[in-house]
């Protein structure tokens, strides 16, 4: 089961995704990046059916880029979330739905606010202060409920993330090979060094 | 004139490189009632002349040259009204489609471009005549604030600080060029609009029957609003500017 | 998980009073037993009409957007806002359009007709059959509990303040006996002069 976590802080969003690509009883890859950058200031993290996930993420990525080229401005993170939800909702009632759950992290330069949207394969879209998909949510949400503060700075957010990862490493019954950590803020999207 | 051989089809250039049908459409518009738009520091005003053809004509309560396109855009029309209503309807649907897809209002220029693209299509795909309408659009979006655009039957559009279309639009433009001030507010711009129209209209007797007004602005919460004026609002403005009196006096001296 | 109407949970209720109507809903959005959001409002406003949408969250969002689309166009065409009765028929036909692949929702409508100033409420099943009511309408995963609460608390001719108390108590106590609803609530009290929105604090479990 893939791990996808998102935590908003005062002016950034932290995204953590597990590095292991698992299929059946095997780990196929230990450097799997389950994110795609959608625009300068937004990032999508995804889990779900193998194949569907990357196809879907890159479909949204391509559409976001096409919009930027056509109109000379980037879509805001909330607009991208809405668009993504609509794509999933339309697919849901098609011949073959996308079985993809995503988090969309963004920083809106117009309003100077960070945002995190939780969208499942049914295309339910909610904006949340912190979010997770799959089994990871059962292990981490209670920790986040207890320790997350609205106006946390980035350092405090990363401390909280470390606590979540530690809990996952302790309780999840297999090795997910650590996580990639990415920060979305006013300067764009950047990688962070691995968290042990 | 050599136009006869080339003007029946919209899609064929004449040897001089002209599209006659498009030019005829533009010609049709230049006989329509004048409409002007002025960009102010805190809003936009659109004003238009309504040509009353007969006393027996049922005066529609709703405006016939001003259309709301969405919550942040209004437009003024010059030309064939029935053509305009087709385009207005498709603009409204496009605006709502964008709102549903992205959860945000469509940026002003995108709406203008989508409409202009439809117009352009009729200058290139054969068998049909172009839309005989020009529009002046007044809109606001959070990217670029207040914006004023004009589009014509060829499918070209451009952004303006003040612009005009319809009958006497050249003299209206000259007047606007003379009196436009970059820092004028909406109130002053409304007065300028009425002053310009008072000089371009054939019949110098200004009244709310012959005028239509629309404004776009921001309310106290910083939210965009638009308003198509009621006859009473226009009468109040006419009274304030004192143009009604002056015009009547001039008429008598003439 | 098998019934789409019960995946995300949520409940809504509407009531008629004397020259007023009230509509209320909870704020939970979950994924089966797991709570996901405590800020998921299920009441949407279209001019002077209020629509409560319970059921599958994706369809709640889709339909609220669809009705925004349709009422915005209606408002521009008619140059007036839509009336509750008209809106109820719009909801009905929109749902029936998807008769053989329905939206998994339980809509309720509340509003005051601006022509005759009469209160109006109604509810629907997922394919658009309208349930006109003179008293109250319930919807969502707590609908059984809400029926019981409304049946015992509601009485005819309630003034706005009393109606607020009645609908709040009915909703709050209904929610407490449903594991899939709760996590906060909102109430709208609608009179022809004004609309008051109140947030209710509830237990957070």
From TrEMBL, chain A:
Kindly list the biological process annotations in GO that this record carries. proteasomal ubiquitin-independent protein catabolic process; proteasome-mediated ubiquitin-dependent protein catabolic process
Query: Where is this chain's protein located in or outside the cell?
Result: Cytoplasm; Nucleus
Keyword check for ATP-binding: no
Keyword terms: Cytoplasm, Nucleus, Proteasome
Kindly indicate whether the keyword Cytoplasm belongs to this entry: yes
GO CC, one annotated term: proteasome core complex, beta-subunit complex
Entries under InterPro entries matching the protein: Ntn_hydrolases_N (IPR029055), Proteasome_beta2 (IPR035206), Proteasome_sua/b (IPR001353), Proteasome_suB-type (IPR023333)
As for family, the record states: Belongs to the peptidase T1B family.
Q: How does it assemble?
A: The 26S proteasome consists of a 20S proteasome core and two 19S regulatory subunits. The 20S proteasome core is composed of 28 subunits that are arranged in four stacked rings, resulting in a barrel-shaped structure. The two end rings are each formed by seven alpha subunits, and the two central rings are each formed by seven beta subunits. The catalytic chamber with the active sites is on the inside of the barrel.
**PANTHER family assigned:** METALLOPROTEASE TLDD, PROTEASOME SUBUNIT BETA TYPE-1
Function of the molecule: Component of the proteasome, a multicatalytic proteinase complex which is characterized by its ability to cleave peptides with Arg, Phe, Tyr, Leu, and Glu adjacent to the leaving group at neutral or slightly basic pH. The proteasome has an ATP-dependent proteolytic activity.
Q: Protein name, please?
A: Proteasome subunit beta
**Taxonomy-wise, where does this protein's organism fall, top ranks first?**
Eukaryota, Fungi, Dikarya, Ascomycota, Saccharomycotina
Automatic annotation (TrEMBL), chain B:
Q: Name one Pfam family in it.
A: Proteasome
- Keyword line: Cytoplasm, Hydrolase, Nucleus, Proteasome
Q: Which domain of life is it from?
A: Eukaryota
Q: What is its main location?
A: cytoplasm
Which CDD domains does the entry mention? proteasome_alpha_type_4
Gene Ontology terms, MF aspect? hydrolase activity
> So which residues are the signal peptide here?
none
Q: Which GO terms describe its cellular component?
A: cytoplasm; nucleus; proteasome core complex, alpha-subunit complex
Q: Which SMART domains match?
A: Proteasome_A_N
Q: Where in the cell is it found?
A: Cytoplasm; Nucleus
Q: Which InterPro entries match?
A: Ntn_hydrolases_N (IPR029055), Proteasome_alpha (IPR050115), Proteasome_alpha-type (IPR023332), Proteasome_asu_N (IPR000426), Proteasome_bsu_CS (IPR016050), Proteasome_sua/b (IPR001353)
Q: Which GO terms describe its biological process?
A: proteasomal ubiquitin-independent protein catabolic process; proteasome-mediated ubiquitin-dependent protein catabolic process
Please report the stretch or stretches of sequence annotated as the Proteasome alpha-type subunits domain: 6-28
Give the record's subunit note.
Answer: The 26S proteasome consists of a 20S proteasome core and two 19S regulatory subunits. The 20S proteasome core is composed of 28 subunits that are arranged in four stacked rings, resulting in a barrel-shaped structure. The two end rings are each formed by seven alpha subunits, and the two central rings are each formed by seven beta subunits. The catalytic chamber with the active sites is on the inside of the barrel.
The family annotation for this protein states: Belongs to the peptidase T1A family.
Question: Which NCBIfam families does the UniProt record give?
Answer: PRK03996.1
Per its database record, what is this protein's job?
Answer: The proteasome degrades poly-ubiquitinated proteins in the cytoplasm and in the nucleus. It is essential for the regulated turnover of proteins and for the removal of misfolded proteins. The proteasome is a multicatalytic proteinase complex that is characterized by its ability to cleave peptides with Arg, Phe, Tyr, Leu, and Glu adjacent to the leaving group at neutral or slightly basic pH. It has an ATP-dependent proteolytic activity.
For this protein, the record's PANTHER family field holds: PROTEASOME SUBUNIT ALPHA/BETA
Q: What is this protein called?
A: Proteasome subunit alpha type
Q: Which organism is it from?
A: Nadsonia fulvescens var. elongata DSM 6958
Automatic annotation (TrEMBL), chain C:
GO cellular component assignments: cytoplasm; nucleus; proteasome core complex, beta-subunit complex
Q: Which residues form the signal peptide?
A: none
Q: How does it assemble?
A: Component of the proteasome complex. The 26S proteasome consists of a 20S proteasome core and two 19S regulatory subunits. The 20S proteasome core is composed of 28 subunits that are arranged in four stacked rings, resulting in a barrel-shaped structure. The two end rings are each formed by seven alpha subunits, and the two central rings are each formed by seven beta subunits. The catalytic chamber with the active sites is on the inside of the barrel.
Q: In its UniProt entry, what is this protein called?
A: Proteasome subunit beta
Protein family membership: Belongs to the peptidase T1B family.
Its subcellular locations are: Cytoplasm; Nucleus
What the entry lists under InterPro entries is as follows: Ntn_hydrolases_N, Proteasome_beta_3, Proteasome_bsu_CS, Proteasome_sua/b, Proteasome_suB-type
Record GO biological process: proteasomal ubiquitin-independent protein catabolic process; proteasome-mediated ubiquitin-dependent protein catabolic process
* Keywords from the named record: Cytoplasm, Hydrolase, Nucleus, Proteasome
This protein's source sits in the domain of life called Eukaryota
Query: Taking the first listed entry, what is the main subcellular location of this protein, grouped into a coarse class?
Result: cytoplasm
- Give the function comment from the record: Component of the proteasome, a multicatalytic proteinase complex which is characterized by its ability to cleave peptides with Arg, Phe, Tyr, Leu, and Glu adjacent to the leaving group at neutral or slightly basic pH. The proteasome has an ATP-dependent proteolytic activity.
């Amino acid at each position: 089961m893939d791990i996808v976590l998102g935590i908003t802080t005062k002016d950034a969003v932290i995204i953590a995704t597990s590095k292991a690509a698992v299929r059946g009883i095997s780990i196929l890859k230990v450097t799997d990046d389950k994110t795609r950058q959608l625009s300068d200031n937004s990032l999508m993290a995804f889990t779900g059916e193998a194949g569907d996930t990357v196809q879907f993420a890159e479909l949204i990525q391509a559409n976001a880029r096409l919009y930027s080229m056509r109109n000379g401005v980037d879509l805001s993170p909330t607009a991208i979330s809405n668009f993504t939800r609509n794509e999933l909702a339309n697919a849901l009632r098609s011949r073959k739905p996308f079985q993809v759950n995503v988090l969309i992290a963004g920083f809106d330069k117009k309003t100077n606010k960070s945002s995190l949207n939780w969208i499942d394969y049914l295309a339910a879209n909610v904006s949340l202060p912190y979010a997770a998909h799959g089994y990871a949510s059962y292990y981490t949400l209670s920790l986040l409920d207890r320790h997350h503060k609205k106006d946390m700075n980035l350092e405090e957010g990363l401390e909280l993330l470390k606590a979540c990862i530690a809990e996952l490493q302790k309780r999840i019954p297999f090795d997910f090979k650590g996580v990639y950590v990415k920060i979305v803020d006013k300067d764009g999207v950047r990688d962070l060094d691995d968290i042990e | 004139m050599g136009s006869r051989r080339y003007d029946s089809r919209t899609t064929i250039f004449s040897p001089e490189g002209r599209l006659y049908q498009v030019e005829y459409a533009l010609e049709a518009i230049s006989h329509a009632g004048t409409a002007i738009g002025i960009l102010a520091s805190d809003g936009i005003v659109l004003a238009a002349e309504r040509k009353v053809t007969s006393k027996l004509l049922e005066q529609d309560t709703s405006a016939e040259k001003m259309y709301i396109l969405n919550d942040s855009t209004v437009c003024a029309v010059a030309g064939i009204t029935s053509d305009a209503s087709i385009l207005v309807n498709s603009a409204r649907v496009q605006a709502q489609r964008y709102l549903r897809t992205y959860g945000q209002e469509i940026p002003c220029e995108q709406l203008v471009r989508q409409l202009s693209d439809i117009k352009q299509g009729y200058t290139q795909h054969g068998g049909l005549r172009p839309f005989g309408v020009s529009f002046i659009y007044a809109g606001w979006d959070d990217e670029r604030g207040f914006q004023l655009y004009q589009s014509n039957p060829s499918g070209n559009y451009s952004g303006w600080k003040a612009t005009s279309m319809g009958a006497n639009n050249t003299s209206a433009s000259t007047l606007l060029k003379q009196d436009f001030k970059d820092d004028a507010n909406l109130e002053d711009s409304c007065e300028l609009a009425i002053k310009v129209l008072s000089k371009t209209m054939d019949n110098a007797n200004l009244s709310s029957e012959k005028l239509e007004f629309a404004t776009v602005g921001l309310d106290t919460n910083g939210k965009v609003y638009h308003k198509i004026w009621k006859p009473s609002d226009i009468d109040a403005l006419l009274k304030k500017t004192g143009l009604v009196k002056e015009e009547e006096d001039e008429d008598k001296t003439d | 998980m098998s019934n789409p109407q019960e995946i995300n949970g949520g409940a809504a209720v509407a009531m008629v009073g004397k020259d007023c109507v009230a509509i209320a809903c909870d704020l939970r959005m979950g994924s089966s037993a797991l709570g996901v959001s405590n800020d998921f409002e299920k009441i949407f406003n279209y001019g002077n009409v209020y629509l409560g949408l319970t059921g599958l969250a994706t369809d709640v969002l889709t339909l609220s957007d669809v009705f925004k689309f349709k009422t915005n166009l209606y408002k521009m065409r008619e140059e007036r806002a839509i009336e509750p009765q008209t809106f109820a028929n719009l909801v009905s036909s929109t749902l029936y359009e998807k008769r053989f692949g329905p939206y998994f929702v339980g809509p309720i409508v509340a509003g005051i007709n601006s022509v005759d100033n009469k209160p109006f409420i109604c509810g629907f099943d997922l394919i658009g059959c309208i349930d006109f009511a003179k008293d109250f309408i319930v919807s969502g995963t707590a609908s059984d509990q809400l029926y019981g609460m409304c049946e015992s608390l509601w009485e005819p001719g309630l003034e706005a303040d009393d109606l607020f108390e009645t609908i709040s108590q009915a909703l709050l106590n209904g929610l407490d006996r449903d594991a899939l609803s709760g996590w906060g609530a909102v109430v709208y009290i609608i009179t022809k002069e004004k609309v008051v929105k109140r947030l209710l604090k509830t237990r957070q479990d």
